Amino acid sequence: MLVTxxxxxxxxxxxxxxxxxxxxxxxxxxxxxxxSAPGIDAVVARYLSAxxxxxxxxxxxxxxxxxxxxxxxxxxARSAPVRPVELALVVDTGLGAVPKALSTVFSRSSLLTxxxxxxxxxxxxxxxxxxxxxxxxPEDVTAxxxxxxxxxxxxxxxxxxxxxxxxxxxxxxxxxxxCGGQRVSDVPSVEEIERFLDVTVGAGRGYTAIGLREAVRPxxxxxxxxxxxxxxxxxxxxxxxxxxxxGTVAAALHETDGAALVAEVEDMSDxxxxxxxxxxxxxxxxxxxxxxREFATLGLL
Length: 301
Fold this sequence. Notes:
Layout: E1 25-27, H1 40-51, E2 59-65, H2 69-79, E3 85-90, H3 98-107, E4 112-121, H4 127-136, E5 142-147, H5 155-170, E6 174-178, H6 190-199, E7 207-212, H7 220-223, H8 231-241, H9 249-254, H10 258-266, H11 270-279, E8 280-285, H12 293-297
Parallel strand pairs: 1-2, 1-8, 2-3, 3-4, 4-5, 5-6, 6-7, 7-8
Helix pairs in contact: 1-2, 5-6, 8-10, 8-11
């Protein structure tokens, strides 16, 4: 089930967020390895402060693994948020733990509102496994599934990954694209992202992303030949794959000129924005390396 409704900045916000960026950025700090992840208390304090701040309408879900849910509930109860936190629940202890986790979330409705349940798919993901996921996820919660991309795999392995992405989308789940991680090999190539967009956006299916750290792709001389990927690059690439922008998808993904990407974003019509966000619903980042204020520096906030 794909979320296509794009929130807009509240009239109470001192700096309302444009619809293209509203609810775009999920805080994925808690899915980092335990040795490097910040404490629950620090993440909750930062998330609530950002959500209730001037750029809060750009902030989407708080991403939390099932294994850390009890600690999150305890910290939220202590923090007493003025409204529930929108939760992206990541399965890290097996699908069998999902019903209990969701029961916990629903029982604390003053603290949490479940929006997505996200899980990695087995290499041989099929309709039977996807149906099991659907059984665990309520109708008003989005099932997000990540077929794992082969790291340095052969063309045959890449094709198998893309076939798995297609099966996930065809079943009604939202595919997730991992754009970075602890290793250089966790970063997909431009060609791999382009092919992923062909399978999802090209077929009228949406997707989410995780592992992004910058608003704009860094210059090659800074990050090496493979490089990292930018949020704006993906937004523009999605628009171009929909046939709503000039230039190629690959060129959008390679672009390191923030001003050029901003100019293309500024030219998007309201209808284009709705269609782009209907395809690219949200992206998980660690706010430490990439502040939302980076978008303000680019003149987008």
